[in-house]
Amino acid sequence: MGEFELIRRYFQRPPRRDDVVLGSGDDCALLAVPAGELLAVSTDTLVSGVHFFAEVDPRALGHKALAVNLSDLAAMGATARWASLALTLPVVDEAWVAAFAEGFLALADEHQVELIGGDMTRGPLSITVTIQGTVPQEGALRRSGASPGDDLYVSGALGGAALALQHLLGKRSLSAEILAPLRRALEWPQPRLALGEGLRGLASAALDLSDGLASDLRHLLAASGVGAEVALEQIPLPAPLGALPPEEAWALALAGGDDYELCFSAPPQQAAAIQALAARLACPVTLIGRITERAGELRWQHSGQPVAPHWQGWDHFKEAP
């Protein structure tokens, strides 16, 4: 089956959103951006052997390829609208493409995202998604709004995906019962779009956690010109990490990456509203520390005592720690 027949059969659908004036099938898509809103755009590439195992379930891979992009929109408080997909395949495997499309489009439908075009070519297996959404002109959550005295939060639990990856790499041995939810966290992340939209007007700054809290939080601090104190005992961990020695658990939760949760700051007076939002969405949100004055200084503490920082998140162009 050729490129265009694959696209027509598995990815091309009639427009499902009123703001898609012209969808896939032409040289460009034509989109109507709502008045009074800004366009939010993000792109991520997933490469076989770097971001995923070649033998991963293609449905899970389709889901994750879109989910990691949706997580970026969530961090901005944006509403997801449109996506384009560039898929590079070493060979044409129709069953694989069908399953990948099923996972991708199921998540797209869940969040009312329209696939508006893209490209398909031959080469080493990789996936590039560009996601587009909109956010009110004065409502976008940015990395640059944190102030000294703000509370610091994370959503969900951290480190589960990293523990699953260690098992798959043969560095640990987990039972099937323990592995199942951790592997789901790794392969089927759930973007926090509703939380991001709900945090507009409550949070002062936000970003999503893809490379690990130890690395990603520094981006927020640098953009805002502030520091932070983080209480390690308050970091939310999935149960299997809680059973590990603290140093091992912290390394996975802070530097393992692949969490796709939100980290955000907010003035203390918003604490009740944030917890009410979390309860309404059934999305756990945990206070882990506070924003401080000294720009760029990230202090880790355990039971009030300082802990020497030695964790670093994922960086494609540095050797792993």
Automatic annotation (TrEMBL):
<keyword id="KW-0418">Kinase</keyword>
<feature type="binding site">
    <location>
        <position position="210"/>
    </location>
    <ligand>
        <name>ATP</name>
    </ligand>
</feature>
<keyword id="KW-0784">Thiamine biosynthesis</keyword>
<feature type="domain" description="PurM-like N-terminal">
    <location>
        <begin position="25"/>
        <end position="135"/>
    </location>
</feature>
<feature type="binding site">
    <location>
        <position position="143"/>
    </location>
    <ligand>
        <name>ATP</name>
    </ligand>
</feature>
<comment type="pathway">
    <text>Cofactor biosynthesis; thiamine diphosphate biosynthesis; thiamine diphosphate from thiamine phosphate: step 1/1.</text>
</comment>
<feature type="binding site">
    <location>
        <position position="44"/>
    </location>
    <ligand>
        <name>Mg(2+) 1</name>
    </ligand>
</feature>
<feature type="binding site">
    <location>
        <position position="208"/>
    </location>
    <ligand>
        <name>Mg(2+) 3</name>
    </ligand>
</feature>
<dbReference type="InterPro" id="IPR016188">
    <property type="entry name" value="PurM-like_N"/>
</dbReference>
<feature type="binding site">
    <location>
        <position position="44"/>
    </location>
    <ligand>
        <name>Mg(2+) 2</name>
    </ligand>
</feature>
<dbReference type="GO" id="GO:0016301">
    <property type="term" value="F:kinase activity"/>
</dbReference>
<feature type="binding site">
    <location>
        <position position="211"/>
    </location>
    <ligand>
        <name>Mg(2+) 5</name>
    </ligand>
</feature>
<dbReference type="InterPro" id="IPR036921">
    <property type="entry name" value="PurM-like_N_sf"/>
</dbReference>
<comment type="function">
    <text>Catalyzes the ATP-dependent phosphorylation of thiamine-monophosphate (TMP) to form thiamine-pyrophosphate (TPP), the active form of vitamin B1.</text>
</comment>
<protein>
    <recommendedName>
        <fullName>Thiamine-monophosphate kinase</fullName>
        <ecNumber>2.7.4.16</ecNumber>
    </recommendedName>
</protein>
<dbReference type="InterPro" id="IPR010918">
    <property type="entry name" value="PurM-like_C_dom"/>
</dbReference>
<comment type="similarity">
    <text>Belongs to the thiamine-monophosphate kinase family.</text>
</comment>
<feature type="binding site">
    <location>
        <position position="27"/>
    </location>
    <ligand>
        <name>Mg(2+) 4</name>
    </ligand>
</feature>
<feature type="binding site">
    <location>
        <position position="27"/>
    </location>
    <ligand>
        <name>Mg(2+) 3</name>
    </ligand>
</feature>
<keyword id="KW-0460">Magnesium</keyword>
<feature type="binding site">
    <location>
        <position position="314"/>
    </location>
    <ligand>
        <name>substrate</name>
    </ligand>
</feature>
<dbReference type="Pfam" id="PF02769">
    <property type="entry name" value="AIRS_C"/>
</dbReference>
<feature type="domain" description="PurM-like C-terminal">
    <location>
        <begin position="148"/>
        <end position="297"/>
    </location>
</feature>
<feature type="binding site">
    <location>
        <position position="72"/>
    </location>
    <ligand>
        <name>Mg(2+) 2</name>
    </ligand>
</feature>
<keyword id="KW-0547">Nucleotide-binding</keyword>
<feature type="binding site">
    <location>
        <position position="51"/>
    </location>
    <ligand>
        <name>substrate</name>
    </ligand>
</feature>
<dbReference type="Pfam" id="PF00586">
    <property type="entry name" value="AIRS"/>
</dbReference>
<keyword id="KW-0808">Transferase</keyword>
<keyword id="KW-0067">ATP-binding</keyword>
<feature type="binding site">
    <location>
        <position position="119"/>
    </location>
    <ligand>
        <name>Mg(2+) 1</name>
    </ligand>
</feature>
<feature type="binding site">
    <location>
        <position position="42"/>
    </location>
    <ligand>
        <name>Mg(2+) 4</name>
    </ligand>
</feature>
<feature type="binding site">
    <location>
        <position position="258"/>
    </location>
    <ligand>
        <name>substrate</name>
    </ligand>
</feature>
<keyword id="KW-0479">Metal-binding</keyword>
<feature type="binding site">
    <location>
        <position position="72"/>
    </location>
    <ligand>
        <name>Mg(2+) 3</name>
    </ligand>
</feature>
<feature type="binding site">
    <location>
        <position position="72"/>
    </location>
    <ligand>
        <name>Mg(2+) 4</name>
    </ligand>
</feature>
<dbReference type="InterPro" id="IPR006283">
    <property type="entry name" value="ThiL-like"/>
</dbReference>
<feature type="binding site">
    <location>
        <position position="43"/>
    </location>
    <ligand>
        <name>Mg(2+) 1</name>
    </ligand>
</feature>
<dbReference type="InterPro" id="IPR036676">
    <property type="entry name" value="PurM-like_C_sf"/>
</dbReference>
<feature type="binding site">
    <location>
        <begin position="118"/>
        <end position="119"/>
    </location>
    <ligand>
        <name>ATP</name>
    </ligand>
</feature>
